[in-house]
Amino acid sequence: MNDDPLGRRSHTGPDLADTVGAKAARKLKAQRNPTPGVWFGLGMMGLIGWSVVVPTLLGAALGLWIDKQFPGTHSWALALLVGGLTLGCFNAWHWVAKEERAMREEQEGRDE
Predict the structure, then answer these.
(1) What confidence score (pLDDT) does residue 11 get?
(2) pLDDT tens digits, 2-19
(3) What count of other Cβ atoms lies within 10 Å of the Cβ of residue 59?
(4) Are 63 and 80 in contact (CB under 8 A)?
(5) Integer Cα distance of 2 and 13 in angstroms
(6) What is the b/e burial string over 69-98, where b = at least 16 CB atoms within 10 angstroms of the residue's CB?
(7) With the CA atoms of 14, 15, 20 and 26 taken in that order, what torsion angle do they form, in degrees rounded to the nearest 10?
(8) How many CB atoms lie within 10 A of CB 52?
(9) Tens of pLDDT along 67-110?
């Protein structure tokens, strides 16, 4: 370990300065990006709920209008309600997947 002619030790591990610098950088990043609180979670639930409700209600309203304008044997209201619900669920799934991906990338960035 005494490779230096002046008798100083050389080592291959991380320096104290590197360790302190990395911790300081993590702390500054955490201060810039605070952890979302309870209200953020409630807001996300509301946003996801509305992303399902709005297409469902629009589909039902359009179906009722079609049934009133063009009476027939099949219920457009029911068919478009189910279609709107399906579209809303896919919309919510896409939104949640995007948010989860962003949180995972942020977490991986924090771990480095």
Answers:
(1) 53
(2) 455 555 555 555 677 788
(3) 23
(4) yes
(5) 15
(6) eeeeeeebbeebbebbbebbeebbeeeeee
(7) -30
(8) 19
(9) 999 998 999 999 999 999 999 999 999 988 998 898 888 777 76
Sequence-distant (≥ 6) Cβ neighbours of residue 9 within 8 angstroms:
1, 2
Tokens found for residue 83: 């279609």
pTM: 0.60
> Residues near 81 by Cβ (< 8 Å), separated by ≥ 6?
56, 59, 60, 63
CA distance readout (Å), 83 to 45, 64, 105: 22, 14, 33
